[in-house]
Specification:
single chain; alpha/beta; TIM Barrel; eight-stranded mixed sheet; 7 helices; 8 strands; globular; Ribonucleoside-triphosphate reductase, anaerobic-like protein; rSAM; rSAM_sf; iron-sulfur; metal ion binding
Length: 236
Amino acid sequence: MTDVGSGPALPVAGLTPLTTLDYPGRLACVVFLQGCPLRCGYCHNPHMIPPRRGQVREWREVESFLETRRGLLEAVVFSGGEPTRHPHLLLAIQRARERGFGIGLHTAGSYPRRLSTLIPNLDWVGLDVKGGAAQIDRITGRGRQWRQLCDSLDQLLAADLALECRTTVHWRDFDEATVERLARWLAAKGVRHYALQWARPQQCLSPSYQQPSPIANPLPDLAKRLRPLFETLSVR
């Protein structure tokens, strides 16, 4: 059994030392954690999918880095993989907050029960909305994801923290009408910040997703119609 008193044992897959993109409006670093339960065909980080056991020394190295960035960085973003699959994530978040950093989280909402324990310690969340009720299980390769997503979204909307929902659109998974229905559903739920991301065909988990799109990227035109529904709607 891991001695959490010596620090959280997390499988750190990588560290981006400085970013202005992963936490809107803040200078942040990103800590990537290994392991994801989903199998999205367009995934461009397939090397982060296989799980492994974390070691205390991995988080200690991150903390050593954070000590050198006090007063320079404003926030730490935990990403993956799916960071909420790791039971020691809460302890790592708390230790980063003790050092004065704001906390951001990238998640697909796959573990709503664990997310509920994290929310009081979060400042911003980027929620990956993989698809609507009719598509999400097929897109992610895992069952019951709609229920998990809805539970996580409801918790985040009820919390007093900044939230951005975003959807990665690959032509094999969506048509324009399906994206619009999903966006309108999110707006009706109360989501105010939304991002649409056109999937990149390079380095996808599934070879069939690496084929170039036979259609032009429809997202810029779609965003013009949907923008009035949100405070912000960006296309990436």
